[in-house]
Each structure stands twice: as structure tokens, then as C-alpha cells.
Amino acid sequence: MDDLLNLDDQLAPEQRMIRDAVQTFVADRVLPDVAEWFEEAVFPARELAPQLGSLGVLGMHLDGYGCAGLDAVSYGVACRELEAGDSGLRSFVSVQGSLAMFPIWKYGSEEQKQEWLPRMAAGEAIGCFGLTEPDQGSDPAGMRTNAKQDPSGDWILNGAKMWITNGSIADVAVVWAQTDGGIRGFVVPTDTPGFSAPEIHRKLSLRASVTSSLYFDDVRLPASAVLPGVTGLKGPLSCLSEARFGILWGVVGAGRACLEAAVDYAKTRVQFGKPIGAFQLTQEKLAWMAVAHEQSGLTALHLGRLKEAGTLRPQQISFGKLANVRAALDIARQARSVLGANGITLEYPVIRHMNNLESVLTYEGTQEVHLLTLGKALTGLDAFR
Q: How far apart are CA 234 and CA 183, in angstroms?
């Protein structure tokens, strides 16, 4: 399918190489099996993680400790190509690099970095991020998970987290908890007594992804488990900004996959004696889908350039996450209508992407949260409280 605005011509040669390498990986290792993974609600993380590590995409935007240290647009392009395969695949990489590795890299002690980052970059250890709770999603300041220090200096962690990607397969969890001194992050090996992570089943979205609850029942951690470099909501919110940047790029790939499927189908499905792509109403659908796709690609590229310049602001990330997820979801829904009944089968990628994007719309900040973030940026007035 034509890139109508030639956006990839704006990529540097190394960024195009990353695009091609990730595209090839997805074509060879993901697309042949992802429909089956989705149908059976499995994700072969232990098999794929070392391969993703060898590809260099785990923590690829971080420096040192076995990480590739690549620029923001390269990371975005990789997320785009991963999500063209499946949102669950991009989610795995986002959680590993932006939510689990990033806080250790940014706020961790040298000992924590040396212990975890090289293994996580190689895909030898899997991480998860514990912020969302059963009763506290969009308002993380109200979290109930707490950690208290006893006279020995150890921390005792109690509480629960929910909707945690990679939770039941993780080797380490970065968990945020209330303490007497404010919200702190803890590096929690998942084999610590009192830690449990049952998987959440019966999902109809992100089925090719592991989603879990986390429970902490008097989990005893040494003083060295605390992330020393941050206190307060700044810590988890900065991680979410990193992950949301990957999302606003990733969903461009999901939208592209749906658009390509619709275009291919419209050129070959014959009705009333000619391909349905020859009818004006179908061409109108395809044209609007292409406009939405190219606009989301422009937004992602612009925000990537701002991130590389060090000027990207949280409200701009909210703009990109809100606009691009909505665009991708609209494309998926229109593509489903072009494919008709075939659009609801896993023989085509559309319904799988459409169902996944329903989750992407609400995780890492619901559209309402991002709308209010933009409203505050426009008015200076906080509508959250």
C-alpha cells in the first residue's frame, strides 16, 4: 500500500534499518501464529523474549547495561512495527522497556541496575509494573498498597494491583506503594514470599498478552529494594509518559494493518460484477481511513522529534495517545465494515486489532484523562478534583 505522504522518507537510514528488521521479525515470528495465540489466549513470552532481546528492542531507548541507546524515533518505529503484528506484542516490549526497565535505569541504585537491566535487555528476565489497583485506576494518588519499615530496616509490603501486563510471568516487579514518606517504588523479585500473581482470564481483548493481578501479603523486602532516586507520583507518571510515547507510535501500526487488509480485500472482493473497491462509497471509506492513518503518523513523527530535542511535554504525549488511538480504532471499525462478515474472523487481522484497541483506548490513561489533561493545558484549570 502506498505511503501517501511519504512519511518514511523522513526517517534516517538507521531508522529505516530498524523498521525493516522489526518488520521481518514480525512477519517471520509473529504473523504466522498470532491469530492462534489470540484464539487460545496465550503469549509465548519465554520463547519470544530472548529473540526480542537479540533484536535489540528491549529497553532500546536506554543507554548502557546492555541496552541499545537508540533515539526516540527509532523506538517509535519499532513500536509501530511490533503493533502492526499485535498490540499484545508491543505491550510486552513497552512494559519491559518503558515501565519496568526505565524506572530502574532512571531512579535505581547502581546495584539494582547491574542486577536487572542486562538480563532484562537480553530477554533473560521479564519485568512488570505495579501501579493500577482494583479501586484506583485513573487516580494513582489514592493507591492503597502500602509499605512500612520495621525496626530492622526491612520494608513490609501489603496490598494489591490489577490489570498488570506480564504479571504472572515476570521475574521482577516494579511496585509503587504508599509510605510514611510518600509514594515510593520498590524492586520486588517475584519469588519473594508473600508475592502472588494469578492470571486474569476470560478477556476478549489483548488475548495474546498475559494480564494478571498482583497480591502482596506481608512481602518482606530489604532496604535496598527501594528505588532511591524518586519520591512521589513523579516516578510512576514519568514511566507512563515513556510507555504512552510507545503507544502513540504503536497504534499507527495497528491502524496500518487494518487499512492494508481493507484495501487488499476491496480490490479482490467482487460484488455486482466488479471489485467493491470500485464503488464510490467504499473508496470514500478507504480515503478517510488513509487520511486518519497518515495524520496519526505525522503526529507520532513530530512528537518523536520533540522527544529527541528534549522538549516533549506530558500534555503533548496525551495529545498523541488520545488522537492516535482514536484514529486507529476508527480505522479498525471502518475496515471491519469493508470486510463485511469476513471482518469478524481471525482469517483477517481486523477484528483482532479492533478488540485490542478497545483496551489500548483505556489503558495508560483513559481518553477522559487525556481530554482533561488537554483541557487543563488550554485553560490552566484542573478538572480532576
A: 9
Q: Tell me, yes or no, whether 2 lies in a domain.
A: no
210 and 252 share one domain = no
The pLDDT tens digits for 257-315 are 999 999 999 999 999 999 999 999 999 999 999 999 999 999 999 999 999 999 999 99
Q: Where are the alpha helices (DSSP H) in 269-313?
A: 280-309
> What CATH number is attached to the domain comprising 285?
1.20.140.10
**For residue 94, what are the domain limits?**
7-121
pTM here is 0.94
What is the DSSP track for 204-254? SSS-SS-EEEEEEEEEEE-GGGB-TT--STHHHHHHHHHHHHHHHHHHHHH
Does residue 364 carry a catalytic annotation?
yes
Compute the distance between CA of residue 68 and CA of residue 58 in angstroms, rounded to an integer.
Answer: 8
- Residue 354 CB burial class (10 angstroms; 0-12, 13-18, ≥19): buried
- Say if residues 101 and 224 touch (Cβ distance below 8 Å): no
pLDDT tens readout for residues 121-156: 999 999 999 999 988 777 777 889 999 999 999 999
| Residue appearing with cell numbers 502492526 | 84
The residue from 81, 115, 294, 364 that is catalytic is 364
DSSP three-state, residue 178? strand
